[in-house]
């Protein structure tokens, strides 16, 4: 949650990534959650604070040399594996809410 609030400070409350998660009051009001913690998943927070270029967590070597023995095949070999890994991460993050984490603190 702290990282989410810091991100709002860095990018501004109008940033689309934060629109449904936090509100910011001018002056000393600070930032606060816009929803109940039970309605905010870790996936929501992840998407709000982490910039995924093109939606991909693993974004690498966009223009490999097709004549290179490794680079010429890197995407056909790794893209599926990395997409599966990202899907697994997102699935897991979607199962945990801020309320779950707050319970662990008490």
Automatic annotation (TrEMBL):
Q: Which GO terms describe its molecular function?
A: DNA-binding transcription factor activity
Cross-referenced InterPro entries: Tscrpt_reg_Rrf2 (IPR000944), WH-like_DNA-bd_sf (IPR036388), WH_DNA-bd_sf (IPR036390)
GO cellular component term, pick one: cytosol
* Protein name according to UniProt: Rrf2 family transcriptional regulator
Q: Which organism is it from?
A: Bifidobacterium pullorum subsp. gallinarum
Record lineage: Bacteria, Bacillati, Actinomycetota, Actinomycetes, Bifidobacteriales
């Amino acid at each position: 949650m702290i990282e989410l609030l810091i991100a709002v400070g860095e990018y501004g409350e109008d940033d689309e990534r934060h629109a449904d998660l936090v509100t910011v009051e001018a002056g000393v009001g600070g930032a606060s959650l816009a929803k109940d913690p039970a309605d905010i998943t870790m996936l929501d927070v992840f998407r709000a604070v982490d910039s995924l270029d093109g939606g991909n967590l693993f974004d690498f070597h966009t223009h490999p040399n097709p004549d290179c023995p490794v680079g010429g095949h890197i995407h056909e070999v790794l893209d599926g594996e990395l997409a599966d890994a990202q899907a697994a991460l997102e699935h897991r993050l979607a199962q945990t809410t801020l309320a779950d984490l707050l319970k662990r603190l008490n």
